[in-house]
Amino acid sequence: MHKKMLLILLMLPLILTGCWDKVEIDQKSFISTIGIDVGKDISKTDELKGTTPEEPFQERDIKKIKVTYGFPDISQLGPGKGGTAKEKFVTIDAYSMEDAVSKAAIKNSRSIHFGHTKLLILSQSILQYEDTMKEIIDYLERQPSINRNMQVVVVGGEVEQYVKYSPNTEKNIEAYIEGLMENSSRNGAILPVDLNQFLRLLDENGNAIVPALKMNEDTKELEIFGVALIKGYTLKGYLGPVETSDLQILRGKLKGGKKVIYVEGHPVDIGIEGVERKIKTAMVEGRLHVDFNIRLEGQLKDYYTDKKENSVEQTNELQKKFNQSLSEECEKVARYTQVDLEMDPIGLREYIHRYNTRLWKQVESNWDDVYKDAEITVNVETQIRRVGVKK
Q1: Measured between alpha carbons, how far apart are the two ends of the chain, in Å?
Q2: 10 Å Cβ neighbour count for 213?
Q3: CA dihedral 117, 138, 125, 86 (to 10 degrees)
Q4: pLDDT by residue (tens digit) across 247-298?
């Protein structure tokens, strides 16, 4: 009897509980892309600082940011219609992200949902306004309904044209970008960053690296051209595709890709298939010394026909030249981010804090000065293990 009563009590919540906010799927707008750009009143930000909290009617129509939402046309989905749909768009002028959502709801007859958002696009213009970016980041951190796995990219020009971009191979931009990011295992110039990583990087030390896109003015096609470097919520600079690949090597994150050297005017491509990174850190006469020891495994992808590249001597000579070239490349990237940008996208701060506690206690109080003055050396050792099937 007691067991029956217990079973009934356990089943009651299932019977009495329902979807209190039930909304039919065809009455929902599943936001797939969020694009954030500067509004035409962004210059009035300083004027707003003079507004006191006690003043009435503070919800003014200030066009501080411009937010474009992309969402799939649900009518194109269903049996026999494929798994993706073309996008519809709505662009909102607002004073905050929450204001943008409220105004979007007025323009949309359907309930707005962010749980399936795949892409966040930030303009390089919005990244010039530190306070506004802090407001945007705070909003993104607070909203539990926003998908933390969405990809984040930075673009040049107006965000709206990117959200509305129609690629040749996909029906919408978020599917196109998602495919590009999946190619990171084969292309070291692509560095995918999702929203969770982006927020964590900014929270740790105020630095973040994000894939950068541009629109080719001639072909009107979308291109990845490296990464944007963000410090203190503002854009500091860019690294091109080659430098991005070098940065990935220094970070020990390179999954694959290629590098080229020129021998007697001919390009020689070496496909990189494995990377092992070791770091040695020490204080020498009051200066931080950092040695990167990089081991690469690769495959010779091409050469030129009147050379017999299969000889051991020839391969060893190629490895030597490749090691020297790549070492200098990586050191230049390290110095550029260290001295010119005063940023640490490699993650040396976190590495020393985690793996060399004694050293970290010495440099913690003045890390920025120590890092900027650090001596960074990169040593590369390459093993070309395969030369292809040519006989």
Answers
A1: 83
A2: 22
A3: 10
A4: 999 998 887 778 887 877 778 888 887 789 999 999 999 999 999 999 988 7
pLDDT on residue 313 = 79
Nearest in space to 304 (alpha carbons), one of 356, 275, 266:
266
Model confidence, pTM:
0.82
Q: CB neighbours of 391 closer than 8 A, spacing ≥ 6?
A: none
User: How is residue 175 annotated by DSSP?
Assistant: H
Closest CA to 113 of 101, 126, 121, 96: 101
Q: Which two tokens stand for residue 139?
A: 């909003």
Q: What is the mean pLDDT of residues 179-195?
A: 79
Topology given in CATH for the domain delimited by 246-386: GMP Synthetase; Chain A, domain 3 (3.30.300)
β 33-38/111-113 pair status:
unpaired
The domain limits of the chain are 26-41+59-239, 246-386
Which amino acid, one-letter code, is at 131?
A: D
Beta strand 33-38 with 65-72 is antiparallel
